Amino acid sequence: MSLPRIDKHAYHTLYGVYVRPMLEDANQVVYAGLKKDTLAIEGVQRVATKMVTGLLHLSYESRLEVLDLYPLEFRRPRDDLILTHFLFCTGFGQRLFTLVGYNGLRIHGLKLYKLRPRTFLRRHFFSHRVSSYLNDIPSEIVSCSSKGRFTVLLDSHLLDLQSA
C-alpha cells in the first residue's frame, strides 16, 4: 500500500484534526486494558507518522521525536494527570477520589487513597489508574494553580522519569 507523502507542517495540521482526536477523545473512559488494543491504537499513530516526507526510513521513536509527539505509554498517564488536576481545580475531584489524610509527612495535599482492585476491569478504571501517578509526582507540580504551568512542569517531570 502506497501512502501519500506530506510535509511536516501539513502533518501537524492533519494530525491535530484527524488522528489526535481519535487517539485522545475520551481517553480516560475508553482506556485499552489489553496489550493488543494498546498496540492497535499505537498503530494508528505509527502509520500516520510514515506519511511525512523524509521520515519513512526512520524508526518510530525517531519519527515521534522529529515531529514533537509522544508515544502512547507517555501520553496516557499525562492526560490522566491533566484531567485529574482539572477536576480538583474545579472542585469535582473530591467527588471521584478519596484523599489520604495529611499526617505531617512530606506529601502533597492531593495524595489519593488507592483501593486494591479485585477484578481486571477495576484495575483499569480512571480513578484507580490515576492514583498511582498522582501520588508519585512532586508537590510543587501538584500545587500549581494554572493548567498551563501544571502541564509544563508535568511534561518535564515525565520526560525526566522516562530518560532515567
Task: Provide an overview of this structure.
This protein has 164 residues and is mainly alpha-helical. It has two domains: 8-69, no CATH class; 73-163, no CATH class. Helix content is 60%, strand content 0%. Helix 1 (8-24) packs antiparallel against helix 2, helix 4 (72-90) crosses helix 7 (126-136) and helix 4 packs antiparallel against helix 9. The radius of gyration is 18 Å and the shape is globular. The N and C termini lie far apart (38 Å). 13% of the residues are buried. The model has no long low-confidence stretch (mean pLDDT 81).
List strands and helices in order, with pairings.
Elements: H1 8-24, H2 35-49, H3 60-66, H4 72-90, H5 93-96, H6 120-123, H7 126-136, H8 139-142, H9 147-163
Helix pairs in contact: 1-2, 4-7, 4-9
Computed structural class: mainly alpha
Task: Give the rounded overall mean pLDDT.
Answer: 81
Strand content: under 5%
**Helix content estimate:** 55-70%
What general form does the structure show? globular
Order of helices and strands: HHHHHHHHH
What is the number of helical segments per DSSP (H or I, 4+ residues)?
A: 9
Number of domains: 2
Low-confidence stretches: none
Rounded to the nearest angstrom, the radius of gyration is 18 Å
- Terminus-to-terminus distance: 38 Å
